[in-house]
Amino acid sequence: MSPKLSIEVVPQCSVSVFEDICKGIDVTWSYGMCSDKWLGNWLRIAQTKPELFILLENNKPVGFCFFTVKNVRKYGLSWKAAYLNQSGDTNVDQIWVENNRFFCAEQHESNFLNLVSEILFTKYSVSELVISLTDQRLTFNHISNNSTLYSSDCNVSYVKTLSRLCNIDDILLTLSKNSRSQLRRSIKRLKENVGEIELSSPQTKADQNSFFDHMSSFHIARWGNTNEGSGFNNEKFVYFHRMMLAQPETSVIVKLHASNVVLGYAYFITQNNTAYFYCSAITPSPEFTYFKVGHILHLYCMHYFASLGYLTYDFLAGDFRYKQSFSDTNYSMYTHKLVKKKSVLSYLARIKTLISRLLSTPSPDSPQQ
Question: At what angle do helices 205-223 and 235-246 cross, to 10 degrees?
Fold first, then answer.
């Protein structure tokens, strides 16, 4: 007899209720960067508390996810959208969740999605589901008849295996000849001009706060006046990551320096023997522009985490050459948008798809024909 799956909804879930529910669930999945600790701290900064959807198997909790329902205005239209484990608020979502997912055993993922989407489409009058940067790929086979896959974007994520890397030279030997040569030259020049290179971790709470404050100033100096901006100018972003750092074994901040000169900082989310590279901040001093400080920072961070017994170094989403050069494998993360069938958005999706196909149709004399 197949198990009976059902959904229990906790409206506007609080942190305390979520933490109590987590204690009663037998976790049969592996958390990535987005963990129960991440979600708890997200709840603390979310202005609109999300709905918690609990997956029940024969009335026993076996999974969960959050959705925040928001009104959206676009193209002269308005509709309701629901965001998986996010707020739909740019100010809050700047914390930028990755490894986002429906938290349950793999065999329940499709059913969980379809049960939740049915509730959101009917009881909450939602027209669009937004699932950002998930490592769960959705195809039409996963989706019930009540919705259609409007768009699905793929982002590559690079990973470095840390096992058997005992020192800096071990890591350098895993790189291409060209990358290895460039890094060795940069390290040599940096040592000759500044001093011995070291990576330090905070020893006290005061050290940790100091690292974070200085990292903030470096990051703002580099990104504060750009179109992207710096998250460290966002009070909610700062508060969230201070909470992450205050909890044991959830995140790590480190400092790269040569003699007494600070070269940069790196911040990681840590989970299941994996260091997830979240962000870095390099000294804004122009004299260090040509020393490849960012590359050296990653090199020393890899050695640091390998020495602590971590197994993987995950660069998270972003197809950048430096990530690829350091990595030995990769995986994909997807951003999916699902729309309710027969809604205005579903017709807009059809029109957009038709226009895209027409624009991509090659001319009769094209080599593609």
Answer: 150
